Amino acid sequence: MNQDYIKPDNWSIIEEGFDADSVKSSESLFSIGNGAMGQRANFEENYSGKTFQGSYIAGIYYPDKTKVGWWKNGYPEYFAKVLNAPNWIGIDIEINGENLDLAKCKTINNFRRELNMKEGWYRRSFDATLLNGTEVLVNVVRFLSLELDEVGVINYEITPLNKDARIVYKPYIDAGVHNEDANWEEKFWEPLDVKHNENEAFVTARTFKTHFITTTFMQNSILLNDKNQNITPEKKEHNKEKIQFEYVINVAKGEKSAIQKIGGYTVSLNHENTYVGAENVIKSALNKGYNQLLQDQITAWAKIWEMSDITIDGDVKAQQGIRFNIFQLNQTYLGKDSRLNIGPKGFTGEKYGGSTYWDTEAYCIPFYMATKDQQVARNLLTYRFNQLDKAIENAEKNLGFKNGAALYPMVTMNGEECHNEWEITFEEIHRNGAIAFAIYNYYRFTGDYSYIPEKGLEVLIGIARFWHQRANFSTNKNQYVILGVTGPNEYENNVNNNFYTNYIAKWCIDYTYEQIQKVAIEYPSDHKRIIEKVKLSDAELQEWKKVADNMYFPYSEEHQIYLQQDGFLDKELVRVTDLDKSQRPINQKWSWDRILRSPYIKQADVLQCFYFFEDHFSKEELKRNFEFYESFTVHESSLSPCVHSIQAAVLDKMDMAYTFYLRTSRLDLDDYNKEVEEGCHITSMAGTWMSIVEGFGGMRVKNDALHFSPKIPKEWNGYSFKINFRNQILKVSIQKNETAFSLEGSKEISVFVNGTEILVEPNSLVTV
Questions:
Q1: What 3-state DSSP class applies to 429?
Q2: At residue 419, does pLDDT exceed 80?
Q3: If we measure between CA atoms, which residue out of 23, 245, 25 comes closest to residue 126?
Q4: 167 FRET partner, CA 20 to 30 A, in 54, 93, 580, 625?
Q5: Active site residue 490
């Protein structure tokens, strides 16, 4: 049974009624972010029930020393933790001498949360009767400004309902936070300084080891019936890591009091003096004022939605799902800063650590290319170019590779590998292929080749050198093999000849070889510079080709399918439909040994290969492989259902495509994998976008043109999306019996619908 307390709504995530058991899940689902920072939807006031406190700042991390039972050579020395940042949202509240705590109230009625995705704010309201008999109505609005991205704002209103009340607001900022997932129970923050003046306070702290400096700040105003009372705190208490103010206000029954709290962070990544930076940020926020900040927020989100919205007509749950995914992607990464990337939990939790996985290249780049300016995707590629030296060091230090072979990390913050499970760190090497594929995908979509001679070719050469050295010649097979790997399906470790890994290795070498030839002809000076820098010879290129041209791929003649890896058919092939439902999810019910011996697939890597290289295979091959592997796939990876949805649509299995779409779009909202309280699955949300645009819309880029093969689930009346293709914005609207195109741009564009060319002119509607 999935959770189902989130109310269906086109534009909002809504929870009605207070349930202590869902607090941690809601803290994830109602998280807010603005690309620079984010936080879980923790209550501002003290809550003594079960909660998972979390605020996060983009780019700030801590290298937590690896904890393993048995140290092996080459283990990463640390796991880069996404840091729980100092808390700025806290406001303890006392009403007629009693603390407000939802775990201890006599009654709680009309409890409601709303995350308004259209306008980018979060609201919580309830009326509660305290143990002392005072009844109050509480209404809290919170948002993180897109305009001033170091600023968050809280408007916390309390109205006494049955008697007058003496209300004490006690706002605080606190650097005495810890990570729930700390390996050694260490504190990650060292407090440096506490300052305050009138209604402002500042706590400056530094991370141990990485020495990021952060000033957490707050500024408070007390209002009565919407009028600022211009009062200063009656008390200020602080220690070396926390400062708390105390404001007292007497409120008559039925009158509305409020505290407006401006808070946030200035960090040493962006400021020489974070304290001075914080003072200036507060000034900017006060100059605008609460109402203007909120209006700016609504305007900024309207602009994001203008380009990235997908509309679905006739299916509220499907509509809510896709908007939640698009909203969270934009909360996590807006592409303003090429030092940042897209962490798999974004700003919603600590799990996984690191800020960059192969998810960025395999799943996220298509979304950002199509819904933003191409510079955003280019920034994501540049991020990897900037870490090439570390990738070369990684291959040399951990694998003994030579000559500039590059192994990009599975998980990273600064280019160093910081994932501490060996079967992933050293074996899940397919991530190298996704990074090369993203370079190809960027050029295919944007037509901007300049990235390759400027930066991309060096990355491709490092990756091709890695694959050349990682493969070895098998005299038994008389072909090159790749041994001891983990594919995207992490329910198989240390296998030989994983089909996806072998295939992408061959493709990387072939693609790099082609680009070297192309750059030599079209960009001779770049070619000369790069070849001299990396010392690449013709003899080495011929060695690469030998590996690529003679790569081994496991195949079953009996089933006419590619085998996921050598020996897959030796397993006891019990299909998922014959697996007792009480055993799911198997990753929470079974031992690792039992999972590894089973045929069950976390995400099908053969199908991942068919997704990337669709035009290398026939539709019949896809059908055979899809039908075989789908029957063993448990989809316990968040990255799995979207690929299956796209391929089911290609194969006209529309009921299946729709089921997978709902699963990927509502993975967190419906908590399919029973883990949403740890945070949302941000990177797989880009896969949800792909399942509509590439799955149902059938969008592909071939020979510099957009192709569509539109399909529509029977549950929908219609859907629409926009694509920024080479600085021309194309809107695609698909109904049951027609597809319409309109264009915002200066010149006409040719698109293909089911193979037929259609000319779309600017500011006109073409219906097919």
A1: coil
A2: no
A3: 23
A4: 54
A5: yes
